[in-house]
Amino acid sequence: MVTSVRAAQPVITARNLVKAYGDVNAVDGISFDVPAGESFGLLGPNGAGKSTTMRMIGGVSQRTSGQLDIMGLDPELQGPEVRAHLGVVPQQDNLDEELRVRDNLIIYGRYFGLSRSYLAQRADELLEFAQLEDKAKARVDSLSGGMKRRLTIARSLINDPKILLLDEPTTGLDPQARHVLWDRLFRLKERGVTLVLTTHYMDEAEQLCDRLIVVDKGQIMAEGSPAELIRKHSSREVLEVRFGTDRNAAAADQLDGTGDRIEVLPDRVLVYSENGEESLEVIRARGLRPMTSLVRRASLEDVFLRLTGRSLID
C-alpha cells in the first residue's frame, strides 16, 4: 500500500459537481481535491458516476453545475489548454491496429503539434518505459492484451502530461500483466505525475492509491486513504465461517458477541473482529462446529461492499 504523500497544492479541485441526464444525476454534488503528485482513486459500482467524473475532468463532457478547476483552468472554457497537460487511458484500448507499435506513438504525438524529431526520441523513451522496445516494428494486432495496455499507457504519456487519467487500467489482464502495469504506474508517480484512476479491483486500489473516494449513485460515501477507510468502516480482521448453505442463517443467530459485527451471506457467515482466532475459539466453545473457517485481515473490499451493498447493479 502507498503510504507517502507529498504535501502539494491541488491540481484538480471539484466543488458540488453535478452531471445530469434528464431527471437523473449521474454525478450528484461531489467535491474533492487532488494534490499534485498524488495517486487518487474513484471506486464505486457500475453506474456510480466514476467514468462520468473522469470525462468531465478530461473536458469531453460538460458539467451541469458546480465548479471544476484543472491546474487553474476550467476544462469547459479552456479545454485545449487543459488537455495539453493530460494523459488519458480509456477503459478500452483504442490503438490503431493497422499501424506498427512505434508509429502509434508518433502519429498520436502529432495531434499535440509535437515535432517529428522530438517524437522520434520520445517514442523510443516510452517504448523502453513500457518494455516494448523489441515490439517497435510489430503491428499492434499482433500484441497480447497486456502489451496493448502498456502501449496505450505509453501513448498517453507522449505529451509528457502532468496528470494521467486511467479508467479501469488493468481490466481483463492476467495477474502478471497487472503487476507489470502497477510497476509502470508507480514509477510515473515517483516522477511526480498525478494519477487519477477508477478500478473495480480493490487490491489495485490498495496498491496504487494514496487516497480515494467511494462513490455510489453519484455521491461520495467515504473518503480517505485505504488504511483510514479500513480502520473506520471495518474491524482489523474478518473471520469467515461456513456451516452449510441451509445452516448458515441459523448458526449466525448464535454468534452474537463473537465479534463487532456479523454478516450472513448465502454461502458463509462473516464475523468482523479485532482478533479472528479468538472469535473462532468463542464460536467453538459454544458448541458450534463450522465446516470451514478462515481468518484474514480486513480489506478495502469489505469497506466497499459495506458502503455500496452486495447486490449487482447493471
UniProtKB/TrEMBL annotation:
GO MF annotations in UniProt: ATP binding; ATP hydrolysis activity
Locations listed in the record: Cell membrane
Pfam families reported for this sequence: ABC_tran (PF00005)
Domain ABC transporter: residue ranges: 12-242
Main location (coarse class): membrane
Alphabetically ordered keywords of this record: Antibiotic resistance, ATP-binding, Cell membrane, Membrane, Nucleotide-binding, Translocase, Transport
Membrane topology classification: Peripheral membrane protein
GO BP annotation list: response to antibiotic
InterPro entries assigned to the protein according to its UniProt record, in alphabetical order: AAA+_ATPase (IPR003593), ABC_transporter-like_ATP-bd (IPR003439), ABC_transporter-like_CS (IPR017871), ABC_transporter_ATP-binding (IPR050763), P-loop_NTPase (IPR027417)
GO CC list: plasma membrane
Record-stated family: Belongs to the ABC transporter superfamily.
UniProt name for this protein: ABC transporter
